[in-house]
């Protein structure tokens, strides 16, 4: 699954597209993913993450180092 936020774990979900005549057909709701580069000053290197908009807000709130430590503890290669 390529469309997954690395911080929040958001993935595509399924649902219905509803026409004007109320006919329902299957569709996918994709997360708002962005590829962002962050400079990790403690390690003096750039880190590339695939994040949702909510994941970017999480990094702004908690700090990049805390989020990267948590991701590494989960076993992700950063």
Automatic annotation (TrEMBL):
Keyword Amino-acid biosynthesis annotated: no
GO CC annotation: ribonucleoprotein complex; ribosome
Protein family membership: Belongs to the bacterial ribosomal protein bL28 family.
NCBIfam families, per database record: L28 (TIGR00009)
GO biological process, one term: translation
Protein name in the entry: Large ribosomal subunit protein bL28
Organism of derivation: Cnuella takakiae
Domain of life: Bacteria
InterPro entries per record: Ribosomal_bL28, Ribosomal_bL28/bL31-like_sf, Ribosomal_bL28_bact-type, Ribosomal_bL28_sf
GO MF, any single term: structural constituent of ribosome
The entry's keywords: Ribonucleoprotein, Ribosomal protein
One family name in Pfam for this protein: Ribosomal_L28
